[in-house]
Amino acid sequence: MTSSANKSVDHVRIFDTTLRDGEQAPGFSMDTGAKLVMARALRDLNVDVIEAGFAAASPGDAAAVSAIAREVEGPIICSLARLTEPDIDAALRAIEPARRKRVHVFIGTSPLHREAKLKLTKEEILARVARLVAHARAACEDVEFSPEDAIRTEREFLVEVCAAAIEAGATTLNIPDTVGYTTPEEIYDLFSFLRANTPDADKVVFSAHCHDDLGMAVANSLAAVRAGARQVECAVNGIGERAGNCSLEEVVMALATRRDHFGVTTQIDTTKIYPASQTLARVTHNPIPRNKAIVGKNAFAHEAGIHQHGVLANKRTYEIMDAESVGMPSNSIVLGKHSGKHALAARIRALGFEVGDNRLNEIFVEFKKLADATREVTDADVVRLVAGETRDG
Ligand code: KIV
Ligand code: ZN
């Protein structure tokens, strides 16, 4: 076993690809300044690996990877490269200043990719893997290999490709669901199969890289972890090609909240999740949907009276984790037309007023009228209602 494979049986590495796969998505590209800001947020999160870009993609991206490699200490800094010498050399140059560095090489292996895109036979692909993974490994101790579109690759060929990559010196084997096509049962079976059938499988860390085309990227990544994957590739706010990548905040909080089920840990400082999510929204000018799991405005907000009553009595009635644990200031009780008297009374008290039951009943009648006419009743509205100002003046 390599030392990285040995690190800890139950530690799942978080490989963040916000700055590579994430920024490849239309509307999310970032310049060097924006990437640096985001890379610092990823360092604060304590991710294991930052995939900082694709050095061969453009001079600007190579410069961004280099800047991150120079300035951001802690995580391993990685650049993507196609399985070609010029790409690998560009990646090596870009990550050179980093204390801890990784090259991530990939080549398509499914019939569609071999025939329609690469025009390469299986033998030609195997030869390239052997030659170019070795080329990368000669210059860098930490080499990740990805058979692109692994999910739609014939299993026997996939084993041959993985074996060739291990023999040539790959230290992490990433198995991408490039088009978000798989299901939790299928990927569990695939990872179990590869770990059982690839020669020297115990020399490498297996990694999952799931896309969200069918909305299953997080579920599929978690299934891969249950089958022995010890690295998950993910992106803040789930950004990435098309429908995106596995969302970092969702997979990390699933592993943390359901530790009883998964039995593994990550080294993420979960209290930095919300700040990182906000930073990404700011630097890419893409707002976070209200209902986004973990980081959306509604993730810890309650408007319905029955829920508010429960949460005010014991927040575990409707919250499986604390807002503070992901770095949000607190949960919130939103006053609207679905809210009940308990929530209104609590807000009135929180605003420093004392009202008796009869007065509360009167205010509640006016509150409902106002709530019907507006989306959200604000604290200023509540103060006006307590002061006796009705909607009609
Ligand atoms: O989705 C994918 O296959 C990729 C590879 C480059 C790892 O992003
Ligand atoms: Zn991808």
Automatic annotation (TrEMBL):
Start and end residues of each Pyruvate carboxyltransferase domain: 12-274
Pathway: Amino-acid biosynthesis; L-leucine biosynthesis; L-leucine from 3-methyl-2-oxobutanoate: step 1/4
Organism: Amphiplicatus metriothermophilus
Keyword Metal-binding listed: yes
GO MF annotation terms: 2-isopropylmalate synthase activity; metal ion binding
Keywords on record: Amino-acid biosynthesis, Branched-chain amino acid biosynthesis, Leucine biosynthesis, Manganese, Metal-binding, Transferase
Name of the molecule in the record: 2-isopropylmalate synthase
Enzyme class (EC, first level): transferase
GO biological process: L-leucine biosynthetic process
Family, per entry: Belongs to the alpha-IPM synthase/homocitrate synthase family. LeuA type 1 subfamily.
EC number in record: 2.3.3.13
